[in-house]
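Input chain follows. Return structure tokens only.
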Amino acid sequence: MITILCSGSRGDFQPYIALAQELKLLGKEVRIAGQRDFEGFIRGYGIDFYPIQADFASLNVDPKMMKQAQNADNPLKMLLAFNKMKNYGSILTGEFYEACVGSEAIIYHPGMTIGYFAAQKLGIPSILASPFPIHTTSSVPSVILYGRTKAKWLTRLSYGMLQGMLWMISKDAVKDFWKGKFNELPKGFKMPYEKHDDETHPAVISCSNHVFPRPQDWNPHIHQYGYWFVKEEKEYTPSPELKAFLDQGDKPVYIGFGSMFSDDMKERYSKIAIEALRISGKRGILSGMGKFDSLPETVIAIDGAPHTWLFPKVSAIVHHGGAGTTASGFLSGVPCIITPFSNDQFAWAARSYDLGVGASLIPIKKLTVENLVERLEYIDQEKIRNNALKLGEKIAQENGARDCANVIASLLG
């Protein structure tokens, strides 16, 4: 049994579901360990699940602190937010360790470093599986500084910052758990990310080489072959209302901010979206913003729909810049406007602009009717549409989840 350790939102789990699907196709037994709330979601894809009972609610994590972490829009705020979060991890860490017992290999998200030390203790391989490039390189800044600075001397340093923040999330929790259970620290207790440098400790990365090419100065055991996209178990059937809306006119603009969106944002940002659509003369889909008493005939509100199904049916994608949403947007071949809230979202916004498939970034805090209208006009250019289409075609030729699964399967024999 291969055990995958993951935590976060639905979007955080999706790349790991894709990886698990491909491992199953190769005949491997695989399960995902994560918070119990995701059990139905993950089992719905036919993937076995190990439920972690402790969660932020049962641990009484302050919701305000959670929101601060979600909305940390610069590296210093990120560090402060992650430093506050680290105190809540020891109970979770113990459960994740138990999930590793009896496994033949551990695959872990970079925020779940218990996976590395558990595998080391159990004498089994560990595989770092990251939803973004994480390893040090001189070629491009990390996702916490890309687009924020052009200082070359910060490029390599930015990976120390990224890895340090991820390590901060789990370091004390692993240390406290290990001392309590084994009365000592794990062997070689330090950041494990750069230790994935041999055949029994490979790293696999979910990222297209047409978005951020694999750096030449990475060690050969770091594998990046493309994004990891989930294969839906059954064809999605939209509501009659959504189907009718899509069929009745020009392709609409998608506007949605995923798990970053909260109820207190609804009034402001829905008004901005609706007015910008009106001025631009475009139809629109508001996703994940809740229900509305009344909307113009040119706008529909939905709870959500699979991005890989919906995005190719729209004319533009306005979103928060989550790694998974960005990947689906690039794959669709549709231009984007990214309004980052925090963390790596700024990098994906900057990268979409640099690739010529999106507008210049506008932080969500600075979004207005005027600058949204300007960006909708900008991405309506033929060259932007052509660039987006070509990028989507290139990404569609990759199969990152399959190729990374092959690396893992060959390791296990």
